Amino acid sequence: MAHNIDLSSYSIRTDLALEAHELAQQQNQSDIEGIWLQADDSEPNVKVTRLHVETEEAGKEIGKLPGHYLTIEVPKLRDNDTSIEEQVAKRFSVEFAMFLKQLGITPDKKALVVGLGNWNVTPDALGPMVVENLLITRHLYTLAPETVGEGYREVSALSPGVLGITGIETSEIIFGVVEKSKPDFVICIDALASRALHRVNTTVQISDTGIHPGSGVGNKRKAIDQKTLGVPVIAIGVPTVVFASTIVNDAITYLLGHFGQSMVESKRAFNKLALSTLPERKEPYTEEDLPDLESRKTFMGLVGSLPEEEKRQLIHEVLRPLGQDLVVTPKEIDDFIEGVANVIATGLNRALHSAVNAENSGSYTH
Fold first, then answer.
1. Which residue of 41, 68, 127, 304 has the smallest Cβ count within 10 Å?
2. Spatial separation of the C-alpha atoms in residues 48 and 74, rounded to whole Å
3. What does each C-alpha distance from 178 to 113, 133, 134, 197 come to in angstroms?
4. What's the pTM value of the predicted model, to 2 decimals?
5. Are 11 and 219 in contact (CB under 8 A)?
6. Rounded distance, CA 283 to CA 261, Å?
7. Cα 226 from Cα 215, distance rounded (Å)
8. Which H, E and C letters describe the chain, residue by residue?
9. pLDDT, tens digit only, all 366 positions of the chain
């Protein structure tokens, strides 16, 4: 059973951002000039994908701004397994440290961490919960610099809430803090509305192109990026909710994928759609798994033959006027948010402070 979040109640008080486009779309166009893509699945349970979009022209081909993108996919992350969480925290810290180095951000640069979201709405509380577990040091550098040892950097943090609570644009609050505290770079952490069912509660995304709070639920807030703040902005996002229209769209894809797999597994016509004959499948279906266009039309009519984006838009247009394009989150969201917030906070503490490691990081989180 899942929790349904009625947007009529939370559309003003929830500023979930929109997840990046599916990496599958990028992989199909990875030969485009100006796009560099690398996938690393050498570590069990974890797949890391690094993408660099060099030019605006290349970015338009895949619907992305020029910049660096890093995605850590861990299907088992939703299992609430502490050993998996520790593995992901370790990999996240390594990847994030490399990401900072790639952007030319050295260990002496001052960081401001912003936990975006509404702490009263569980799927949107990721940012504030991460901030609660960060190692904050800026005040020590100001009030007691002699107490700060080697291996730490200046880190400050902020949970600005959402427009519906404060009455102030999130970007305005952050801009004011940046103007006064003068950090060298900003890290924004936010929950995301996923574009695909299988990515909910399984993915951590990092980019240096900033973030658009509220874009995932139709609340157009001002962008938080280098252009608006004047310093580099690194966004960290985790998909925690999905629209009902996305669930319907993915269900159709899964049906077609099942039909295609059935046709491959059995040559006997009467067994093409048999459920019991197919092995259990945990991976999402790809375009290669689907039947040919004529078979799709046979199984699902016109809907089955529509391109992915057109099918998604059609379902959204059908559900939205009825008020049924609900935002849905898994029933385990309470435990997941607490676990993944601890993962990101632990990883950030290790990446931002070289003195924090696997042995002592537990002293800084709770």
1. 41
2. 9
3. 11, 21, 18, 36
4. 0.82
5. yes
6. 13
7. 18
8. CCEEECHHHHCCCCCCEECCCCHHHHHCCCCCCCEEEEEECCCCCCEEEEEEECCHHHHHHHCCCCEEEEEEECHHHHHCCHHHHHHHHHHHHHHHHHHHHHCCCCCCCCEEEEECCCCCCHHHCHHHHHHHCCCCCHHHHHHCHHHCCCCCCCEEEECCCCHHHHCCCHHHHHHHHHHHHCCCEEEEEEEEEECCHHHCCCEEEEECCCECCCHHHCCCCCCECHHHHCCCEEEEEEEEEEEHHHHHHHHHHHHHHHHHHHHHHCCCHHHCCCCCCCCCCCCCCCHHHCCCHHHHHHHHHHHHHCCHHHHHHHHHHHHHHHCCCCEEECCCHHHHHHHHHHHHHHHHHHHHCCCCCCCCHHHCCC
9. 455 544 333 344 555 566 655 544 444 555 688 889 999 999 999 999 999 999 888 888 888 889 999 999 999 999 889 999 999 999 999 999 999 999 999 999 999 999 999 999 999 999 999 999 999 999 999 899 888 889 999 999 999 998 888 888 888 999 999 999 999 999 999 999 888 888 999 999 999 999 876 555 555 667 899 999 999 999 999 999 998 888 888 888 888 887 777 776 665 444 445 544 555 566 676 777 777 777 777 777 778 777 777 887 888 888 877 777 888 999 999 999 999 999 999 999 999 999 998 887 766 665
Alpha carbon distance 279, 285 (integer Å): 14
By C-alpha distance, which of 267, 269, 264, 259 is closest to 297?
259
